[in-house]
UniProtKB/TrEMBL annotation:
Domain of life (superkingdom): Bacteria
The organism of origin for this protein: Tessaracoccus flavescens
Classification via PANTHER family: HTH-TYPE TRANSCRIPTIONAL REGULATOR PKSA, HTH-TYPE TRANSCRIPTIONAL REGULATOR RUTR
Matches recorded under Pfam families: TetR_C_6, TetR_N
Keyword DNA repair belongs to the record: no
SUPFAM superfamilies membership: Homeodomain-like, Tetracyclin repressor-like, C-terminal domain
Keywords noted in UniProt: DNA-binding, Repressor, Transcription, Transcription regulation
GO MF annotation: an example: transcription cis-regulatory region binding
Residue ranges for the DNA-binding region feature of this UniProt entry: 39-58
Domain HTH tetR-type: 16-76
Protein name: HTH tetR-type domain-containing protein
Length: 208
């Protein structure tokens, strides 16, 4: 029975392995050349397979791009510190991102390119930016309610600001990795808009 199961599983495992190999190649090609200039033929060459073999798994370049974006999300899990601290979680995610420069380069190239007419990733990036801003706004609103935001800081505005800062500073880091410290820039921004938990407690807990 175990042998029969193993035989059935073989082709599926092989197919999954080939798909991953194709996606690895597409990541290299699209990060280096963009979606428009990166060809299916070049992806097949990098994956060391025929174009017809590649197209057996991904019939169009649009299909390949969307699968790559889906894997990008799966490969970039939210990094949590376990302390329920938004600031610490943001910095932990930024540190993790720096271990995956190819993935960040792919995201930067494709997000900018999605502005062009008819780009298949446009809806993906619109939805992603909307979701990220909304998530940050909810988290910063919690900090506001806990007295952790500095006076006058609007959760909605700070959510959009940190989204823009994070993407922009990562782009600069990709261009000048020896000169740009993404974590330090994010920390400096967060220091401007938040205050330590102990000082917030003094303000929000009434005296007996």
């Amino acid at each position: 029975m175990a042998k029969a199961y193993s035989r059935r599983r073989g082709p599926c495992a092989k197919t999954a392995e080939r798909r991953q190999r194709i996606l690895d190649a597409a990541l290299q090609v699209f990060a280096a050349h963009g979606y428009r200039a990166g060809s299916m033929r070049e992806v097949a060459r990098v994956a060391d397979m025929s174009l017809s073999n590649l197209m057996h798994h991904f019939k169009t370049k649009d299909d390949l791009l969307l699968a790559l974006l889906e894997r990008r999300d799966a490969d970039s899990p939210g990094q949590r510190t376990g302390t329920n601290d938004l600031v610490a979680d943001i910095l932990a995610q930024a540190r993790w991102n720096q271990t995956m420069p190819e993935l960040i380069a792919l995201y930067s190239v494709l997000s900018a390119e999605s502005l062009t007419d008819g780009h298949p990733g446009r809806d993906y990036f619109i939805e992603r930016f909307t979701t990220v801003r909304r998530g940050f706004e909810e988290e910063f609103a919690k900090l506001h309610d806990a007295g952790r935001l500095r006076p006058g800081v609007d959760p909605h505005m700070v959510a959009g600001s940190i989204t823009a800062l994070w993407d922009g500073i990562q782009l600069q880091w990709l261009l000048q990795p020896d000169q740009i410290d993404v974590v330090a820039y994010l920390q400096a921004f967060l220091d401007l808009v938040t205050q330590p938990a102990d000082s917030a407690l003094v303000r929000v807990i009434p005296e007996n």
